[in-house]
Structures
1.
Amino acid sequence: MNKKSRIALLILIILLIIFNKSRINPYYSQIIQMIAINAILALGLNLVFGHTGQISIGQAGFYALGAYTSAILEIKLNVSFLIAWPSAVILTCLVAYAIGKPILKLHGHYLAMATIAFGMIVESLATNWLPVTSGHDGIYIPTREVLGPLVAQNLFEIVVISTGFLYVVCENIEYSRIGRAIRSVRENEIGASAIGIEHSKYKVMMFVLGGGFSAIAGIFYAHLNTVITPEVFNMHTSIQILMIVVLGGIGSNIGVVMAATIVTILPELLYGFAGYNILVYGVLVCIVLVFAPKGLFGLIEYPKRLKNKLFVKEGGNGIT
Amino acid sequence: MALLEITGLVKKFGGLTAVDHVDLIAEKQKITGLIGPNGAGKTTLFNMVGCTLPVTEGKIVFDGRLDLTKMAPHKLVYEGITRTFQIEKLFKKMSVLENIMAAYYPHTRTNLASAILGLPIVKREELEVRAKAIELVEEFGLGSILNVLAGNLSTGQQRLVEIMRAVAGKPKLLMLDEPAAGLNTIETENLLIHLRKLNENGLSLLIIEHNMKFMMRLADYIYVLNFGKLIAKGNPSEVCNDAEVVKAYLGKEYRHA
């Protein structure tokens, strides 16, 4: 990540915080928070799917684990959030490790099925384990009491800054030895092991990291929404996270954040279509995929490619 | 001195014996060739040395001390063996530079934690690896395709990239599986020059090849496999005139070559 984009990110975060503090419209603040949460979820999946090439349609499972663990610890066991939040992330990572270790030996459709199954198991646990999760009644989290007034008031800032931090983490990973290693695994596992990369290790590592990201998103969601119910964490959510990654241009962090923004705002804008919003939504996604197969990131790059095409420099692109 | 020593190597696929009690020695700083008709078991043997295929019976000893029969394939490069594949296993959606940079993996140390935090060490290592990779690519005369996606290259260039990737791992023994297959005359010449140069710099090579002329000009010592059995060995001219080799593989007109 270069200096320019670091500064741009910093400015964006400051602007968002100023916007929130000036209390122009709490509805907009809420949407920004949802964008941040979706971005964290998608950045996590992007590590697994975009960079390492391992599909996961069970991210909502980790999302739920993060949300429920933190909520249960705080509400039912009266643990301070300072302990509850890290415990929720660590527990989710451990679960991701236990699940990922065996199922990441699978490829393609089989891996997709296994991750779907994981998501469904978590969802039905949340629905049916009544004494712990309260099932469909959900858990109510009085954010102000749990976090204390100071943290609760600044939750927006915490969420936005964390998102920025996680974005930087993703960028740092991408442009490092680790990033190259996981991309090698995505491109060719046998080729990767021929140059000394243990592919199973990196697949599990990224799966755990992706799970951790989801858990963080889950914790934020639980405390922003103040109520968590199993329906929020169903397969539809998993698919939506996957869709954000695909829409953003698989493997591009900035594209994924843009896609998270669009996917979060779009349903709000399409509110007027009532029952047809899913239809409009689907058509829009199809249009993006047809005209920008590399996702939104491909669209950003388009002017650059056009310039290359028009003013071919010697050795510039090199494809002869 | 023997760098790689294979004794009594056997591979059975059910009832089929693909490699049948083969003994083979790859000398240090020499180019050892392995030839034979299709289905002779050359690649099977290679895959056993490359640890991607379990051995039924026999011993593979590297550097006089290391048993390769029970190693994980990703550990080979740390011991000093790298390989290329018959069907290239390049990272096609990564640029040539990135392909080569990735191959410096065993010789770099950035771990997940330092990568996440973006420590200065990571950046320094990144620049170092980049410089080394560019140097290597330019040594192979491919500086002009540095930023091209590997999947967009011609077969000849892809071969070279895969060889560069194997060289980047700083091996003692480089194993090449049919490096000249599908290359035209100029590309083959080019490959020959590069391989000789690597050998002169002290690298030992073990090569499977179908192109006899190529092998005759390159190899110091040749082993011939047929139906999994070793039928001849010797320096190129000896092998060329061996009656059984001529019958099984080369054809009569080769006797006079």
2.
Amino acid sequence: MRAFRHAMAALALLALSLGVTTGNAAEQSEGRPAPQEILRDWYYLMNELVRHTATYSPPVASRSFGYLGITAFEAAVGGSDKLVSLVGQVQGLEAVPAREAGAVYDETIIISAAMSDAIVFYFGNTGPTGQRAIKTAQRKWRERVVDGVADDVVARSETFGKAMAASIHEWSLTDGGAVVTNMGFPEKWELPTGDDKWVPTGPIRQQQLPLLPEWGTVRTFAMPSGATCPTPGNPAFSAEAGTPFYQEALEVYETGKTLTPEQLAIARFWSDDPMLSMTPPGHWVSIAMQVAERADLSLDDNVDLLARMGIGMSDAFVGCWHAKFTYNLLRPVTYIKKYIDPKWEPALNTPPFPEYPSGHSTVSGAMDAVMTHFFGDNYAFEDHTGSPDGRNPRMFKSFHEAAEEAGISRMYGGIHFRAAIVDGLTQGRCIAEYTNKLKTRK
Amino acid sequence: MRLVSFGLAVALVCVSIATAHAQQAAPVIPTLVDETAGTGIDSTFKGEWEYMVGGGAASFDCNGDLYPDVLLAGGEEPAKFYMNASTVGGPLKFTAAESGLELEHVTGAYPLDVDSDGIMDVALLRVGENVVMRGLGGCKFERANETWGFSGGDLWWTSLAATWEKGADWPTIAVGSYIDRAEEISPWGSCTDNWLLRPAAGERKFGAPVVLKPSYCPLSIMFTDWNRSGTPSLRVSNDREYYEGGQEQMWKIEPGKEPVLYKADEGWRPLRIWGMGIASYDLNFDGYLEYFLTSMADNKLQTLAAVPTEGSAAKPTYADVAYPKGVTAHRPYTGDDLKPSTAWHSEFQDMNNDGMVDLFIAKGNVWEMPDFAMKDPNNLLLQLPDGKFMEAGDKAGISHNGQSRGAALADFNLDGLVDLVVVNRNSPAQVWRNATAEAGNWLQVKLKQAGANPDAVGAWLEVRCNPQTMRREISVGGGHAGGQAGWSHFGVGSEAEVDIRVTWPDGTAGEWQRVAANAFYVVEKGKAAEAWVPR
């Protein structure tokens, strides 16, 4: 996070140089933070923990961002004259704690208290350094947010924030995705057989069975189930040259053989490997944080955005995983080595689960739809997510453009056929429509 | 010490290993007896966050009896030194002794004779300042940072390696550091600098440290002649938990030149693991070392992707063969805790003397990491005749479930069988005596040369049993926060005699010498191997 914040500081300087106002956030950073500022601080820390918590594969990260976003949103609803609760709109959320009528609350303290407890609920299994960071943040950031606030307001606000975090967490435990063991790899799983079926692609013993094969049954937030937005299916499998499937594989192969430096940079920019990055969900949260900070979004806008993104990305991964384990398609590296060139290697590490559709494409399609719905078309932004890892920032004219690039990056990386990318993006946009229909404003 | 001249001999054919390869016989399961309670070793590596890694063990002789003495890191407690009081074949006995090495904040230790005076010195890795301790004889040591111009720094030091660069009469030491301790909320991406301390020009002391940038939080480093060029490179195993944009590294360290990283266009391939320890051995008898890299979940066994043909140079491209060789050791093999494992010190030693080197791995949860096994037994993977390994830690008796960290595998009672000391975090160290009844024959060799680098760090020791030749590189570094000096052990199966040869650090290849098994030999450069009989 330290390095990332440095990158963000550079971004802020860039924004200033471009004449973009940074507004209240910069003014308030000298003293007590505004609620949206402390919210962003917690989110930056949580995105670090996504990278540094062993169970945090992309589906798991998306789920946590779903509940975290709703926690922040519901914590803020009672203090806003614009927001509408998600109770009754997302599956299984039937009630949340209410504020005392007429009592004084502090929004910064509520948000910080809610996130301070939620981070433990969702990242309590992180390692000792993460635990230390959480405890330090809880202590130091509490000192910042309670400074100068009356004791009764502090107590009331903290109690409410904590109650909200606990309530959302209790609800989360019933969705079927709360318990993840062995870093998501099952002890037992019967692999479907057939020439077109997924087989392990690497020598890692832990990954000889696919990641989270039952994730497609996890309760969704806004869409009815993981089966709601089905994909049309990959082209019919064939090892025959000239068939559509062979041609798709040949496209991956030839793209990989003639990869340009720009294509390789794109593949790496969106690689988002678990344990080496904040994963695709974290990458999109990072984009949202950068955009929100630059746009100096209000608390209402921040929590609305983060809740919608969390809901959309979580549903996207459930839908994608439902499809993945419907088709159980083999990866390009398996096909190409067998039928085209036994010495071929993809530019990226092949993820340990079936190919179709592409998870990054599905979530990127969903995030394109959610963020475009929120910010509008042709919202240009620069993404510095990879800067701490030495990757150059990339400029995008729109969220749509970013999502399309994220999708095709998987072909440049040699880990997806085109159909998985195209259908994944479409599936994500379909899933996001359910998120976009949620009523969050009066 | 009694030296007996044995003389040179012609090469003969040894057949036991070749025969075993053809037959795939079941290995002898070693018997390791936990003698901790009676050994006198009572050290614990204690500490909180800054001591979640480290906990090294060093073994070396410092009183001239050639029995390995032991130094164990103590973390927040003082390190503890134990003088070996064992007798040949007897129970393992150690006596805690005031040596001067009992510093606090010690995370690891490596023995090396810095000033080449024939008396072992010790480099101490610490949270804070590293300290080199000059051996005075009789297992007494004194601080020598100032005398030797050694910059100790003030970092969280985790790894060390040393070599004598070509023509140098003073060692080059590399030290690896970990996280910026001041970063409480954002320690990720805060890896502090690794240093290379080369000899000062024209002086018998260290020069100013050279920063090895980029530095990626290594937990093990070693100088190793991976390509048999005669010039060791610096292999660095980094903890991906804390670096950003990092990977495993290998530095070209050529005399008189700035360190340079091997790059992709030379064949280096990115690998990102929770690198915690390095062990090396020529497992496939091709003349090049395999490297076992400990991590969390799957561990890695790297072998050269392509062995160079005659006259060509090796490329630093490695293939991971841990899975086909059966050494992923990715989760506990016994007990009911089946979460992924966490591996630290590893070491290749032949525990049953069958001529096929085995692999020990110290295991233990980092610190209350619930996604990884809390009951994580240490591994003893026995090599089979086909080159694969089978787990025997539980059967051998070493499947301890503590938070193990460092270890030293050495023949502490000089009976020809490799014993074991394991350092545990926040619980006492343990000692196992190897009491394998059906073990094969063995051979132990100590190298010696006049002048600088008297222990011949950088030499290669070969034991030939046709059609195979076993090889060890004499090195300072690797493991997890601890190293050993002294006897190099080889199991030789049923062979009564074997041929040995030394390629000395300057590249000089000695003659093949025929020696009898079940004996100790001191091999001095330019001289015949001399048998040595312990007291």
3.
Amino acid sequence: MYRYDEFDHAFVAARVAEFRDQAGRRLSGELTEDQFKPLRLMNGVYLQLHAYMLRIAVPYGTLSSKQLRMLAHIARTYDKGYGHFTTRQNIQFNWPALKDIPDILEELASVEMHAIQTSGNCIRNVTADHFAGAAADEIADPRPYAEILRQWSSVHPEFSYLPRKFKIAVTGAERDRAAIQTHDIGLHVKKSADGRLGFAVYVGGGQGRTPMVAKKIRDFLPEADLLFYTTAILRVYNLHGRRDNKYKARIKILVHETGAEELTRQVEAEFAALKASGEDLKLPQADIRAIDRYFAPPELTERAEGWGAVAAERKLDAGFDAWLRRNVVEHRNPDYASVTISLKGIGEVPGDATDAQMDAVADIAEKYAFDELRVSHEQNLILPHVARADLKAVFDALVAIGLATPNAGLVTDIIACPGLDYCALANARSISVAQEISTRFGSQEKQEEIGDLKIKISGCINACGHHHVGHIGILGVEKKGTELYQITLGGSADENTSIGEIVGRGFAADEITNAIETVVETYLAHRAGRDEDFLAAYRRLGAAPFKEALYGSEARAA
Amino acid sequence: MKILTANRLIDGEAVWLAPDYSWSETIDVAEVARDKDAEARLEAVGAEAIRRNRVVDVNLVDVELVDGAIVPIRLRERIRAAGPTNRLDLGKQARPGAASAV
């Protein structure tokens, strides 16, 4: 993985010192809250319902064991013994004291981590496929490009005060696990007919109150031109993005109002002008390959004995067998596999891990997974490289810490934002809904009978829980002082991204789990067979049978 | 009826203005304003506390009295006063004898 060079160390240390000074001046009264707020936000410090919240960047979701241990230490020392992994592959701590945050940042810097640009109207943490570097279907590891973008975008003087926040995602595989079409810029690594690497470029995706699927504005951008092109997009956005209305300030609105064709013309014109200007943005091959080397896969020795071992062990342990079915996926090396560590125990809080669990997972990664971990945008942890021969040992170690739930991609693998239990912006709770649905569908047999199904829950229209792209999405709102939950169906964040359709009137907090069960039972009753998953069935059937099941005569009257 | 709430600057702790104009960590001793004049007095104290960098995010919130106890009307404020509903071991509700939000 990437290691800080001298410049990175000096840069992060300087930012820690700067924030220590800013926090000190705030606490002494030298800075007002109005003056301090944009400064703290630029360092990931929010004020939430109960306390401050610190969001720490996990660049493209990649962590080492040492870094995860540091997060455990922070949870234990400065917070309340747990952390919350987020849909942007970051981690949040919900209870830090402002007076302690400079010390936390200094501790993070010691393991090459920071909280810079995890908030504010700037380019946020660049996200990537959580199986990057390991996936069997990958063309190239997207993380070197994500790292180049991270370096380019960190305190970029031109792009630190954009009209609104800006999110970039990169995938290097045909199957999109990074949700690139829901990002401001989505990059899909491609190989041209003559073997050159480059990108298909998508612009203007996003969720929030106005969900949009990104438009592809370039079929193939040579990798050397990456920063020319992203600079061109950002310049067009910076110039024309709506600064008069924060609800219309994201680039998706600019794309929508300008039209994809005209916006593409503007970007291409800026791109051409930039290249002609002599501005030094071309990525030299030598530099790209130098970054590549940081992400070189570990040396994977032949471990063919794993095939026989796994086949024998799965016959003896039904739990292990289920875990293999759901949480273990193919690796590019057949003797190895990638493992999803579910942070979605039945009835538990999606994305939460205790300090003890983080320490234990760090130990497992160090012992069995080449010291490497990932955070997925689906709020799970990933061990990207595990020898099949070690899978049973990994499983047993995860069982011991309560993290072996075999539900990756199933109905209980729910994304949920913090919602009204923590978030100052939320209108309704998300976590409690996720917990109740998880408990309702907790039977492994039932979950596997239902098959692949992504439920995503947001506690307000800002859509941090990605409800718009859930196969079943749930949006919590406040109506007449009570929580009300609106269901959307048919959303998806993969290579065939779609925005879910609102199915009808909302449901009260004590009705929503029954409503979701009705939706699921309707799917089971109407699917063509077990091979037709929920999304495929919905796309074939449309909303009608689900509306009928949920609303009966009310739906027919409408 | 309204009470004045804020977050303490130094650590973000949710606090409520008490009758002696101190900031209480629990809602039960909050000063209740029953008319516009009383609300204005609370707001003036809040503005001064902001100026003196004691608290941030000062707001008046609607409450009712239930069996003599102060209960915010909105769930949001009930959760602030108690803690996350999914973790009863966290927040004010973790204190001995304290009530949860739901």
4.
Amino acid sequence: MTTETLLEVRSLKKYFPVTKSSLFTKETGTVKAVDGVDFTIKKGETLGLVGESGCGKTTLANLILLLEHPTAGNIRFKSREISGLQGKELWEYKAKVQAVFQDPYSSLNPRMKVRNLLMEPMAAGGIWSKAQQMERIGRLLDLIGLQERDAGLFPHEFSGGQRQRIAIARALGPDPELIVLDEPVSALDVSIRSQIMNLLKRLQRTFNLTYLLIAHDLGVVKHMSDWVAVMYLGKIVELAKSDCLYSSPLHPYTRALIASATIAISDRLQKEETLTGEIPSPLAIPQGCRLHTRCPQTFDLCLKEAPEFKEKEPDHWVACHNY
Amino acid sequence: MNNQNLLEIKNLKTQFHTRRGIVKAVDGVSFSVGVGEVLGIVGESGSGKSITCLSILRLLPQPAGRIVEGEILLNGDNLLQKSEKEMRRYRGSRIALIPQDPMSSLNPVFTIGDQMATPLRYHLGLSGRQVSEKVERLLTQVNIPSPKERYKQYPHQMSGGMRQRILGGIGISCDPVLLIADEPTTALDVISQDQFIRLLKAIQVERRLSMIWVTHDMSVVSKVCDRVAVMYAGRIVETAPVDILFNRPAHPYTIGLMRSIPELNTGREELFSIAGQPPDLLNLPPGCQFAPRCEDMKPICQEKYPPVTMLDDRHSVYCWLKADHDH
């Protein structure tokens, strides 16, 4: 299937300076939050991004949402570089790329009615008249399973699951093409999670939406994604088609992640491949392969040289000296 | 395992008196924990799992929370009849709690060593060198590298996984007979979660500790628990050994939960989801609380709470669909 590439990310880097201020501000180090990331997402597909906290997933999302500016590298949306966008084009991009965040208790302004919450991104896009916006609100609420009269209520009058639905409706408002889903279900109860996941998938089919899904729950990612990228300390260590990644993971880090998330009654707590120790500080990233301090398969080369990110099998990329 | 019950809870009812009315957070819960057994309590937020645990320790928020009925028997001794002074001797020594959030459960202005020493001084009467030696031993037990240096450090100097392990260390420090872990891994990443579970499970097996492990994560349940109690709206709806619960769940709520978890070995088809929202505890439906969300509801479900049905000697369920007679 040849579909249009919607988002292309090339050697993207984001470094944050760490400063110490006494009388003069001194730069004492750099946090390499995102350190050379490459991937593409095709239209209508979902890329799942997994990794431990502090590995740079959210910084990556913020870069795509233009909430942060990259230190180096490119982000192309429909083959156009986004860093130089200005004026009308910039607003268009911001309308086409929307986000749903983790915590629906803090991502909705408690002083705004649902109607105003939904109108804000539409008004910013500047395409619709007030009357059209009102009409769209009715349709959006219907899509996510709320009623039109709910538009006059405040966020606190809804449950967690309903609030996340409102956040989704808000993202759909300006008719986006890409939605960045940053941990969209991890704050919700188990019985509500599957409702939201099904809703997101239904909306994706209806509107041919493209998702960048950030999550730490491997089950959720597997269920939602066409492609999965695994991040560790600012770099993608493995990228593959979802089924392939879960059935034959290559990178030791991916294997440990999958082993630790599996429901295992029959072989309870066997000695699966597991990592030892803590995630290193992003201020002092290990030399060579970043995982070598915790990896069960480390050998001398891993300490010296960082592995290249290579296509090991068709559509299966991995950065590890063992392959 | 042995049949002797360490902890037995009979018809526990805990309520919160609020301005909007009485919240029946725990509404008639009975269960037991055997010696060396790990009982998992599973349920959504608001189902009463944490309040059940806090009731055992008598640590309910005051003055709103009160235990209005029931018995909590530890080795046959009713904890609800103890004075506050007697309870202080139980907490942290015979019954210990590992709280949920490692970020807020440690005091940021005291060193790790200080905080680990407090229960040792209070309960075991240790002092001076004995304390520091014991703390170092505990730190080693919970896999904290270089315990001598860590002893003098503050919580913010450690990662979430390490802080959680320190809380685990505090939990086991006075050799409790019952350890209550209230969602101890929810705030952690998958890898640190796995490390913590392995560590605590190993300690539990080695010491034949009895544990109550509260969680909402089925993969955690599958790894650590012997038996599971499923809670919904303040009641236990099903209790079963872990393999039976996974293979033959009986209550429609448990079945729904199991089917709505996206597993690593399933496809990408539409997930099953339980319709509706968890009920408002101020305004519980009559009869079975799950009835309004249940696909197979019968008229009687909305009238009377179902009686217990024993599917086999260790598998009990509260559901009219499984009851063999109408009361």
